[in-house]
Amino acid sequence: MELYISAPDNKAANKPAKELKAFAKTKQLAPDESETVTMTVKASDLASFDEAASAWVVAAGEYQFLVGASSQDIKAALKATAKAQQTKVNSVMQPQVQLNLLKR
Questions:
Q1: Would residue 67 count as lying in a domain?
Q2: pTM here?
Q3: Rounded distance, CA 63 to CA 10, Å?
Q4: How many domains does the chain have?
């Protein structure tokens, strides 16, 4: 089974319509047989990196959780609402200390 997440405004966040976030394998199942699988999604799995803010950002809104055999074979869907969240990180391109530049 595969778990896909669809963000509330995926086009504005430059995210795909569905992102694979977790998967689980079952044993060979007979017809009408079922098996319970557990897939865990953390809040950080909803985040996208915002370069301008140098932060991981979770957009507020309704996320769709889609479960299926593949992205084209969705069997169940669940909606959940997330609050906006931002986790700042250090800018790897910005010096962390003041540089003494040589001048000509």
A1: yes
A2: 0.77
A3: 10
A4: 1
